[in-house]
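Quick question, first post here. What does this chain look like in 3D?
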Amino acid sequence: MQAHHHPAHLMPPALAAWLAGVALQLQQAELWSLTVYGIFLALAFILLASAAIKSIAFWQKATAVTLAFGLLGFASTGLRAHVFSSHALDPALEGKDLTVTGLVAAMPQYSEAGTRFRFEVEQAELDGRSVTLPPRLYLGWYGGAWAGGELLDLQRAPQPLQAGERWRMAVRLKAPHGGSNPHGFDFELWLWEQGLQATGYVRAGLRDAAPQRLAQTAWHPVEWARQQVRDAIFLRLQSEERSPERLRVAGVVAALVTGDQQAIDRADWDVFRATGVAHLMSISGLHVTLFAWLAGLAIGWAWRRSSRLCLAVPAPTAGLLGGLVLALAYALFSGWGVPAQRTVWMLATVSLLRLSARRWPWPQVWLLVCALVVAIDPWALLQPGFWLSFVAVGVLFASDNPTLKLGRSSWHRRLLALLREQWVLTLALTPLTLLLFGQVSLVSLIANALAIPWVTLVVTPLALLGVLLPPLWELAAHAVQWLSLYLGLLAKLPLATLAVAQAPLWAGVAGLLGGALLVLQLPWRLRALGVPLLLPVLLWQAPRPPAGEFELLAADIGQGNAVLVQTATHALLYDAGPRYSRESDAGHRVLVPLLRALDVRLDRLVLSHRDSDHTGGAAAVLAMQAQADLLSSIEESHELHSLRPGQRCEAGQAWNWDGVHFEVLHPTADDYELARRSNALSCVLRISNGRQSVLLAGDIEAGQESQLLMRGAPLQADVLLVPHHGSKTSSSAAFLDAVAPQLALVQAGYRNRFGHPAPAVLARYAEHGIRVVDSARCGAAHWQSQAPRQLSCQRRTERRYWQHTVP
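> Answer (accepted):
Ran it through. Tokens below.
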């Protein structure tokens, strides 16, 4: 009876309550006051003090401790968020030319456009007076005239940067601001987790003071060492052969040694995700565990060579602690990602239990490590890697993996056990993967059967040993090339991946429980109950408009246009957003994931005109949507026509989908004969169901607006995509009188260099009583013809306190 009331039994509910408290705080749209979090913290300590009273019943102790830890998790996370947000960038300093002195805080990231790096501020000035900036900035130093997809004055080429260097440079900053889209990547959360509270770029124009390197300091030695190793890998592997394939595998080798995942080419990531081996191409728990095991064996072997050392500390203990310390060093050197953290804390917990001759149940160890990782970084709970890592470990424990009991079993039994382990993980994690990413690899079992031992036992050891013997990097590169050939063949199979609409949270949780039931050591009658639980996440269908209705989703893609139009059974994408840089565009970053998450099959892609802020993501969209036809005003010689021969848009073209009428109003055939700017050839599309209508106007300017009025085009619309992002050259008063919209959508980047939407244009819309919604404040905007008075803004419906609020 006494054992039932042992204090150790309080640990699982307390740890679970801590995690629940943190998770609840992360759902807050706005931070509460410090006073409220302080009161919660005081309540938690009062509850813990009451639980220490010996005379109260055990259930009362358990209740008090559970509530206390829940309050501690909630309040401590809120207080940490308050402290961090107190260092935010002053809005008055946005867009100003500031002079900053400080340190390069991490190894820089290189691209064709320039260099991205983290900068630790020591001193900042504005016009000679001292100002306060956030402690860490995320800066770009661009060469030529390209910066984040926008043209700037000619820039000096970036100079080589080393982690730990002190520099003095002129910069322009803005608050952390990224796109906000359904199922999209939260760039602002990523910056928050990295401790970066402002972004910007180095002012290195010919009229600006040249950036000055002041000194190499001893600060950030780990980042300096990571950079030396990464650069040495690229130098070594580029010196022999300079083929594109050779340079790409260098990025994989660098990622496995230093954890620099940005070194891996985007095309390679696509293959790794399609084959389900992406987890192997970063510093995963498997790599850290292998490193700890090998280090422990080596230290134990060396320790046994000295009787004096063995008398002081037993060799098994020395190997255990030495392996743990070296695993910690490797995890820190590789960037300290969530999988590495989870593994280090798991190894540390198991090691301490072994040294203390204690044996805890696996759920207790699992919960303790979860809580420890979340205590160090509460926002890790929002990372997909956290859930994939911990769910995988929990499933392996719960399914009673026979691999742990094989001892000296024959090789074929070991092989069967390893295959079973991979099958268990695949089955259990499929619902979670679909919930998080909307797709799962159907060839992952075959791919991992070779990739796991090859990467773990061949590629990674060669890559790590190459730090001591650089020629081994050559062998690692060849090993990666051979693996890439195998994975590339699998990725090209017709059914390599399964993509479904991303289900709501409840369906994902049900699917995860179903997958877990199927792999647990339970009678098959109970396991079979997991099958119906899997169905919601596998068969979920994103809602579509009924016949005769349509809806718009204006994606948040920065400075550019991209509007998804859906009817009951058809879909059209109007423009494909901008190119952000030479390596990144709205197609890969926003539109392809969005279309996949919504399970949208495009019938038509309309590109209003050739400008890169409208066609930048088109290639990625066309590659994903092989069945979509192309309608545009771009010239026949344009490179996009080599990907998909298209039809020229002309006034008078019309079609009907599900009771919804689409009509092209501009340009006319005569317009193509005249030598005009590309804006003048923008395809203007009107969509109507007889009750509600929308006008998508591209980048037409006042001249084309007058032309439409003179032709008597049917311009009236309830919703208007503001011409030319709100430029002062568009949205004439006569045009607004003719359209007479109730709602106007502006797709423009936050603090874009063009000043869109122009204040004079906004005043004109206000004079006409038109409500204007811009993507910088709204995020992705969702409008439905069934509820024309309502507009759903992603930044409002999914608001979280770390997200930027535009003044």
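The CA atoms of residues 20 and 70 lie 6 Å apart.
DSSP finds 29 helices and 27 strands in the chain.
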